[in-house]
Design brief:
2 copies of one chain form a homodimer.
Chain A: H1 10-24, E1 31-32, H2 34-41, H3 45-53, E2 65-66, H4 67-78, E3 84-89, H5 93-99, H6 103-106, E4 109-116, E5 125-126, E6 129-130, E7 132-133, H7 137-144, E8 148-151, H8 158-168, E9 172-175, E10 188-191, H9 194-210
Parallel strand pairs in A: 3-4, 3-8, 4-7, 8-9, 9-10
Antiparallel strand pairs in A: 1-2, 5-6
Helix pairs in contact in A: 1-4, 2-3, 7-8
Chain A binds a DNA duplex through helix 1 and helix 3.
DNA sequence: ATCCGGTTGTGAAACACATCACAATTAAAT
DNA sequence: ATTTAATTGTGATGTGTTTCACAACCGGAT
C-alpha cells in the first residue's frame, strides 16, 4: 500500500488537501462515505474514491471511511502529518493581525516568533510575543527549530527580507506581500495575493452577467459546485 | 476571433489570470515572447502559445506579443477589464489592515466602505474611512454601487455576516475567515485560508526531505518550476 | 531583393485525468 | 444462515490537456 506523492496526479493532490481539510472539521469517530464527501466538495463520489486508490484502500464497503483513519492516511501521504514551527517576518498591520490568528494551531502550525527590522518595533509586546530583531534571525530560527516563515513586510522590502530568511535557514515562505520574490531552488514560496483572489471573483461575476447562472468560483481554480469553503 | 470564457479549458483560465498578472508588472510598450513568459511562469512556451489560441491571435512571428495589447486581450476575455467597488465587512485586526492595503487600486478594485457590527467601532476613523454600521448595509451597497465584499469577521459570525451581505445585494465574497459559508447559487465565494496555504508549503517540504530536490510549490496547485510568485 | 535568426500558431500524437458501470464486499436485519 | 441495502475499489472507456514538431511568417541585415 501507500504509493508516494510523486505518483499521484497533481490534480488529485489538490483535492486530497481539500478532503483532509474537511475531515479535520468532522468528529473523529464518525464514518463518512464518498457520497458524503461528494456533497461537501462538489466532486463526484467516483472521483473521490479514485483519488484514494492512488495510495491505498481505507474504506469498508457498505459503510464508508472512518474519519480519523482516512484523515490520517491522507495526511501521511501528503506529508503534512507533523508539527511545524512558523515565524512571522514583519509586524506591520498584517503581521500583527496574524500574531492573533488562532486557526493555525488546529492545523499543527505553531507561530513561535515575530521579527521586524524597525528598531521602534523590536522589543514590543504583541499578543503573546515579544518582537525580536531581524539581526537575531539565525539564532531565532535555529533555537526555535523553524523552517517556515510568513512574509508580511512592505512590498519594497520583500526581496531583501526573503534573502535574510533564506540565509537564516528558512526553507518555505508564505508570501503575503504583493511582490514576487526570487529564491534558490531548494526553497519553496507560496504567494497569496488578495488582489488576484478578487480577480477570480470578478471573473465569476462577469460570467454570470454575460450569460445564464453558472457555477460558483472554484477553490483551486477548477471543477467544484457551490458552498463556500474556508 | 475572441471565443468566450466558457469554451476555454479551466486550467488555461487559471494560467491566463497568471499571465495577466505578470503583464501588469511590465512596461506597456514592451514586447514579450512566449519564451519570456515561460521563464517567468515556469509553464512551457508551447503551452502559453496554445493558451492564447483559445481566444484569438495576438502575436507577430519573429517578435512576440506587445505587452499592452496582450494584457488587454486577456483581461477582456476573462471579463476583468473593468473597475469594481469593494466593501470590507468587519474591521478587526485583519479588516483594519486591509483598509490600508494599497495594491487593490492597481488591479482596479476600489475599497469604498468599511462596515462592522460592533457599536464601539462604528463611527471610528480608520485610514481614509469612517466605519459604518451593518444596519446601513443595504444603503451603503446601493449608494456605492458595490457588488463585492471582503469578509473579515470572526469565524463564529461568518455565516450571519454572509447572509447580511447577500441580502444587501452583494454578489461576490472573498472569505478570509477560516469558516466555510453557504451562499445562494447566484453568489460567488472565494475562500482564502492561510492555514491551508501553509499546508501546501508543508507538503513541498516533506517532498524535498523525502527524496531528491524537486519543484517549488505551484501557485494554483499545479505544474510550474521555481521563482516566487507575487 | 534575398537571406536569416527568431517567433508564432497549430495539426497530430501523446499523455493525464475523469467518468462509467459493476463485481466484490460488508454490516445489519431477519 | 440468508437476505438486503449500501458502499467500496477498479477495469474499461472517454474526454480533456499538454507536448511535439514544423510550416508560415516577420523584421532587420546585407
Amino acid at each position: 500500500m501507500s504509493d508516494h506523492l510523486e505518483n499521484i496526479p497533481e490534480l488529485a493532490v489538490s483535492r486530497l488537501l481539500r478532503y483532509h481539510h474537511i475531515l479535520m472539521g468532522m468528529s473523529q469517530g464518525d464514518v463518512v462515505s464518498s457520497s458524503d464527501l461528494s456533497e461537501k466538495t462538489g466532486y463526484t463520489a467516483a472521483q473521490i474514491r479514485r483519488d484514494l486508490t492512488y495510495f491505498g484502500q481505507f474504506g469498508t464497503p457498505g459503510r464508508g471511511y472512518t474519519v480519523d483513519s482516512l484523515r490520517n492516511a491522507i495526511a501521511d501521504v501528503l506529508g503534512i502529518n507533523r508539527e511545524s514551527n512558523v515565524l512571522i517576518m514583519g509586524v506591520g498591520r498584517v503581521g500583527a493581525a496574524l500574531l492573533h490568528y488562532e486557526s493555525f494551531e488546529k492545523h499543527r502550525f505553531h507561530v513561535v516568533a515575530a521579527v521586524d527590522v524597525d528598531p521602534e518595533k523590536v522589543g514590543l509586546e504583541m499578543g503573546r510575543f515579544k518582537v525580536r530583531s531581524v539581526e537575531d534571525l539565525s539564532d531565532i530560527v535555529t533555537e526555535g527549530d523553524i523552517r517556515m516563515a510568513i512574509l508580511c513586510v512592505p512590498p519594497a522590502q520583500a526581496q531583501t527580507a526573503v534573502e535574510q530568511l533564506v540565509r537564516a535557514g528558512i526553507r518555505a515562505i508564505l508570501n503575503l506581500t504583493a511582490m514576487p520574490v526570487d529564491v534558490p531552488d531548494d526553497v519553496s514560496v507560496r504567494p497569496v495575493n488578495l488582489a488576484v483572489e478578487l480577480e477570480w471573483l470578478a471573473m465569476a461575476q462577469s460570467r454570470r452577467g454575460g450569460s445564464r447562472g453558472e457555477k460558483a468560483v472554484p477553490e483551486t481554480g477548477f471543477n467544484e459546485k457551490k458552498k463556500g469553503g474556508d
